[in-house]
Design a protein that fits this description.
The protein has 266 residues and is of the alpha/beta class. The protein has twelve helices and eight strands.
Length: 266
């Protein structure tokens, strides 16, 4: 499986208009992924999350201002912080005051790795606004969060994409990794499973003004059938079923994920 993933990383899906070849990770990205400040438990998940190849595909550079939406415990923060420390800027973007408190504590705990310039910003998705200055970000990244925005219904997901569009510079990149629901499945499964159809994510981005620039299969997992009792959370690392069929789910691994790159037109 590992070899399959690495091979898939080499080529973006050429059927996508404007798709490009995924680039080899730069020395700076490789060094950030190998940073000694990373949590060992987080490093164990590299086999599923492929951070070096993913960031290379998105075209992330050390000099970028990078906004990460909903960093949670800081899995990617431990990579993006060292990558930008002293050269660019890392911004942890959250959707509430409570989230801001958690993100502030998370950055404080990882300050030695992320550097003094890393900050927290907030977003009101329903209003499509944020505290990130307009046209100030080079890259906005979000990893496995779009399903949370859509499951609540309403305009939250659409507003989030509009807010991301506003904060990006013209020509800036929106990079998305999300659990992938097979196209043949009922749309209603998106409300409960934690998986989304590719068409849903693309439609949200395009409605906000983004152009789909390419996609990669680096985070694909053909073993994942997306049909579990407790949705995507049945698989590792959550194991929502506890010890029930744990070995089976461990053998499947983490979810099948789409990796989509959008750009804000110049």
């Amino acid at each position: 499986m590992r070899h399959h993933f690495l091979a898939a990383a080499a080529v973006a899906t050429l059927a996508v208009p404007g798709a490009t070849l995924a680039q080899t990770p730069s020395a700076a990205i490789r060094a950030a992924v190998a940073a000694p400040t990373r949590t060992p438990a987080n490093q164990l998940r590299d086999a599923y999350r492929h951070p070096a190849q993913t960031l290379a595909f998105f075209g992330v550079k050390p000099t970028d201002t990078i906004v990460e939406f909903s960093p949670a415990g800081g899995w990617y923060t431990e990579i993006l912080g060292p990558l930008t420390n002293g050269k660019g800027r890392y911004v942890a973007l959250v959707g509430s005051a409570k989230g801001a408190d958690s993100a502030t504590k998370m950055l404080a705990a990882k300050r030695a790795a992320v550097g003094p310039a890393a900050t927290v910003a907030t977003m009101d998705a329903a209003a499509a606004t944020s505290t990130v200055p307009a046209a100030s970000a080079d890259v906005v990244l979000t990893f496995r969060n779009i399903h949370n925005l859509t499951m609540g219904g309403g305009t939250t997901a659409a507003g989030a994409f509009k807010a991301w569009y506003a904060m990006l510079k013209p020509g800036g990149t929106l990079g998305i990794v999300e659990h992938r629901l097979p196209a043949a499945r009922p749309d209603s499964d998106e409300k409960t499973s934690g998986y989304l159809k590719r068409t849903t994510v693309v439609a949200l981005a395009q409605a906000a003004g983004f152009r789909l620039a390419g996609e990669s299969q680096v985070n694909a997992n053909p073993k994942d059938k997306a049909d579990y009792p407790k949705g995507v959370w049945t698989l590792p690392p959550n194991y929502a079923e506890g010890d029930t069929d744990r070995a089976k789910y461990a053998a499947i691994g983490e979810s099948d994920r789409m990796t989509l790159k959008f750009v804000k037109p110049r």
